[in-house]
Design a protein that fits this description.
Distance between the termini: 38 Å
Helix content: 25-40%
Structural class: alpha/beta
Strand content: 5-15%
Strand order of the largest sheet: 3-2-1-4-5-7-8
CATH topology: Rossmann fold
CATH superfamily: NAD(P)-binding Rossmann-like Domain
Radius of gyration: 19 Å
Shape: globular
Largest sheet: 7 strands, parallel
Number of helices: 9
CATH class: Alpha Beta
Order of helices and strands: HEHEHEHEHEEHEHHEEH
Length: about 290
């Protein structure tokens, strides 16, 4: 049976969604958004473009990128798109070469990534390596290649990496928790190394955010998602987009090496089992 429920925000909703940011808040800036056709990347592209930025969306499939770019340009915004596999370092470097030929960039939002719900005991070597390669190595490829361009050009830049809440509350996706924890540690380390070249590096750790990606998770798990934080609701991709604008834009100019958690308090209280809560925890363990 097909899941008919639609999750996330549509382009029509994103085009009109109320925001705290002024229409000229990002005028003159260029933002590269990896995973630009995904729900978080798409929302971020809409917000940045509505605030005056030129946005460059990247993703693995042109058929997913083109509709987003078309919707943005139809609404009078500056947007382009490119096919890019962040796991392929040669392709990443070639992308940044082309981007610099077109005027460079000011912001990089690393939103590309993916995972699947599964008990850690059942991970295959291929499944583990794919998630680590995309979420950790792919993020690093984009970060380092961009930072080298900023260094060589003698101009600063801002990187925001989208991770997950890596402590306490997210279960059933141990591979992505490991990869994203690596991204957060890496970001903190290079935020110091790259401060002399005026490159800021921060992370945003989303909690329960309603996206189309929810459809890969079991219905019984999704039914309990809304109880996974003390606000008893899901966040939206717009919440993450506005957090990206705050950290990456002028408002975050004195912030680097930080992780901004956007999870409705879930890390402090609650849990999300992407695979459904095991009977051991549901029934109070062994007695």
């Amino acid at each position: 049976m097909t899941d008919e429920v639609q999750y996330g925000l549509s382009d029509t909703e994103l085009a009109a969604h109320r925001t705290v940011y002024a229409p000229d808040a990002m005028t003159g800036l260029t933002a590269v958004i990896s995973g630009g056709s995904g729900d978080i990347g798409r929302a971020t592209a809409w917000l940045f473009a509505r605030c005056g930025a030129s946005v460059v969306l990247t993703g693995r499939k042109i058929e997913k990128i083109e509709p987003v770019v078309e919707a943005l340009t139809r609404n009078g915004m500056k947007a382009t798109g490119e096919v890019l596999n962040v796991r392929d370092r040669a392709s990443v470097d070639a992308f940044w070469d082309r981007q610099w030929q077109n005027g460079g960039a000011d912001i990089l939002i690393n939103s590309a990534g993916g995972q699947f719900p599964q008990a850690a005991l059942d991970f295959t070597e291929k499944g583990w390596n794919t998630v680590i390669d995309t979420n950790l190595n792919g993020t690093w490829n984009m970060m380092q290649s961009a930072a080298r361009k900023w260094r060589d050009a003698g101009r600063g830049g801002s990187i925001v990496n989208i991770t997950v809440v890596t402590r306490n509350s997210l279960h059933g996706v141990a591979h992505t928790v490991a990869a994203r924890a690596g991204v957060e540690a890496l970001s903190a380390a290079v935020s110091v190394e790259w401060a002399p070249i005026q490159v800021r590096v921060n992370c945003i750790a989303p909690g329960l955010i309603e996206t189309e990606g929810w459809k890969v998770y079991p219905p019984e798990a999704r039914a309990e998602y809304y109880t996974g934080n003390p606000m008893m609701r899901a966040g939206t991709t717009w919440d993450i987009a506005e957090a990206c604008a705050y950290l990456s834009g002028p408002s975050g100019r004195f912030i680097t090496g930080e992780v901004l958690t956007v999870d409705g308090g879930g890390r402090q209280w609650g849990e999300v089992w992407t695979t459904g809560k095991p009977a051991y925890f549901r029934d109070g363990g062994t007695k």
